[in-house]
User: What shape does this take?
Amino acid sequence: MHKTADVIVIGCGAVGSASLYQLAKRGVKVLGIDRFQPPHDRGSSHGDTRITRLALGEGSQYVQFARRSHEIWHELERETGQTLLREVGGLYFGSANTHGQAHGSTDFLQTTINVAREHRIPHEVLDVASMRERFPQFHFRDDERGCFEHSAGFVHPEACIAAQLKMAARHGVELRTDEQLIHWENNGGSVEVTTDRGTYGAAHLILTAGAWLPRIVPELASSARVLRQVLFWFEPDGPHELFTPERLPVYIRVPDAGTNMFYGFPTIDGPSGGLKIAGEQFDCTTDPDSMKTEVSAEEVVAMHAVASPHLRITSRCVRSVVCKYTVTPDFHFIIDHAPNTERVWLASACSGHGFKHSAAVGEALAEIVSDDRTKFDLSPFQLSRFASGSA
Assistant: This one.
């Protein structure tokens, strides 16, 4: 079997579904292929909620994506009647005396404040007395300060993916699920894709396969590591009303010498659903197909030990799941054409902060392959930065 499309997209999760939707809107004949049935829990885009924020401690180069993604999700909400984005505000806090390093930033909290000021993002810089008065859900130390961003909040990743795939299908996209990529090659004027079910040809190929991308593009093997992460839902210690989206923003506790970074969300599943919180680990790599999916009692105890000095939770964990990060050495994205061909584009290795940008990254890829240009500045995300040793 040999089918021809204008564009083939491999991996239909966060960025892949966004690419399909944006290409379909432009009238491009596009084929999407995924080895599972998105949205699914095998990759990086599940777990009910993901933080979205415009004041970005990772750097101002991401504001373009976050702002446009908010616009796209609101467009999808109007088209589908679903709630995808809730702007409940975001509190980022940590020590006022040390520089908390996170996601490649040497001072995550101060960079967040700087980006908010530079891009006129509504925010407030808060001292510890103000935080204690406004956010009784936390235990703040005397040496802490914070930044409250009014436009931050959370998105529902599974719903966002499903909405983009639904709208892509309405525009004529063919989606093939439970189909695994075997091989791809550039044949000069076209790209040929072989799966476990057939062979397909297209003018362009977009690779958005997340944790499996280093296998698909071997040149990425030295620039992307796959890491197992765990998400937890703990019982809140206090009245349920205090922890609802109406009272509790999303939050990030910036790391310092005494505390690892953790982040979390308000309750969205009623009094018994728990508060979703998570930390990050960047030491132990994993294989995307054989990653341990069980969460141990020791991991639950360790997460509670990190978060409970700062957040009002009990030791009871009502739920836990695992997900994957694909991380670059500098914690920044890769959005570039594959080595030695401009017909194949890839976007992955989002290093644990990618979903909030995914709708716009998909639009950028659609613009590139359909119009040969994009309104987004992709220069900070080129793969060549690793080859030059500048990372």
About this structure: The mean pLDDT is 95.
